[in-house]
Amino acid sequence: MPALPILKLPIIVLIKILRLIDFEEVFPISLCSRKMFHLVKNFRDKTDPIRVLVNGKESNIIVSVPENGFIVYVAPMAKKYKTAKSVNINGHLVSIDRAREEENWDTYWNDEIQGIPAVYEHLSELLEFKGPPEVLVNRNTLWLLSYIEKRQGDNYHLVIGDISEEVCHFILKNYHPQVVRAWSLNDNFLIAQYTNSIESLYSVWKLSITLNDVLNTNCVELILPNNKFTESEIKRILQHWVIGGFKRLKYFCLSVRGFNMEDVLRELNHTRMTENREYKSESVSPTTFSDRDRLITRNDDVVASFQYNQLFGVVHFGVWPDSQGNQYS
Amino acid sequence: MTSPASSSEVKYLIESSEGNTFDVSGAALRQSNTFNAMFLNIGADGPIPFTDYNEATLKKVFEYCEHSVNEENYSGPKHQDDLSKWDLNFFNEMDQKMFIDVINASNFLDIERLTSYCCERIARMLRGKNTQEMIKVITLPTAEELEAKQKVEEKKAAAAKKVAEKAAETAEKTETLEELPVQQLVQTTRNKLTRKYLSFSNE
Predict the structure, then answer these.
(1) How far apart are the C-alpha atoms of A172 and A191, rounded to whole Å?
(2) What region holds the SKP1 component dimerisation domain (chain B) (predicted)?
(3) With contacts defined as CB-CB under 8 Å, which chain A residues touch B134?
(4) Would you say the pTM of this structure is higher than 0.80?
(5) For domain B7-137, which CATH number applies: 3.40.50.1000, 3.30.710.10, 3.40.50.300, 3.30.70.360?
């Protein structure tokens, strides 16, 4: 292995090298020394947005950009790993090994509880991710939610997956995530009682939620692609918005059955959109509204785009301006 | 500088750190933004001194420039997998020292294509390596070495502190001695001498 003292190269060359380093190499190179940490932090390629999942269930942190990513596993120290080489992660001397999947890392901790926060702090300082982290916990790792809330208040996404109803109620009563993403949840789980405090609810699972629950929600975003609503129910929801209901609602995506766009919009003040516009929501990927979609105007002149996607049987509704302040003009 | 009719055939004399000179075509030299900024418009009387770099390095750099004269304009770093056989040979036949010298010279001459390929090559060398291997490649001390170094430094600092404290103590004593009135000092010295004399006479 040839040695290349890259720190002795001119800084312009070093910056070029650091910009060319693959995203999955950023973590191991940051552990080389404090100086490398700061060089990588300042000069790595920062064009791609970063997503972070703190996974208390699998005891790891997943960091990804659109086409790349890596996982840092936090495992208890076992005898056989004591001889492994150590690195300094946020002040802890930790054994580290490349995981079976090449781009991932196994770290071994004497105190596992310190592991995830230490790795998270290291990555947060290194990558300076702007977006809120997603947090997945189980019964044994609820402490992670306390850590995250202490660190950044309610600015995180709670991912609910494979936990008991009792634990789920406990979490939603005691913690306050801005966004709740339900990957799996009991069909009968009464989510409606929490939709006043949750800002965004996104469930890939069918939830126990009625039209009345929706009309009484205080959510900013409601994404329920597996809850079927009838044409008249959608009409009712839109009418409720037009007369000033849903004080905070900005975006919804709901599943529909037996849907006719014209019938739904008949009594509403609407026009056809004149151009394609991308609508950015807080919790899901952007929706592109096109000139086939409609623009509904509320009594106070606020406008919202409305789309029926026949292929997937869902409707999208976005109130302008979107989550990034983009206006419809 | 020689100057034949066609500008592409213009040859420039380059001077290396050893004081040796050699020819490089104008077309090849124009890949260097440093050259363009310094000499392109005003020309050069006599050899152009690039005397921070040795002849072997400069010849290697301009070998690359001569080869890529006819390549299309540079448009961002090329993936190493897309490099031609010639490019690969060019890089593979360099040892580590020459490679570093070429990067430095290429950076100074601001030859964007060559510098970028070199950088991409280094980034690629780090690919798939763990931290320890990276530390070896970029020749940094390991965490254990840093910790050991820190311990040695702490020990040194503690020892230095002890010495300083002792010195301060001695200084204090000296000061006390200096502060003694002259009469007392004379008396103390006399007593010492008397004791010494008595012990000597007893023998």
Answers:
(1) 9
(2) 113-159
(3) 28-29, 32
(4) no
(5) 3.30.710.10
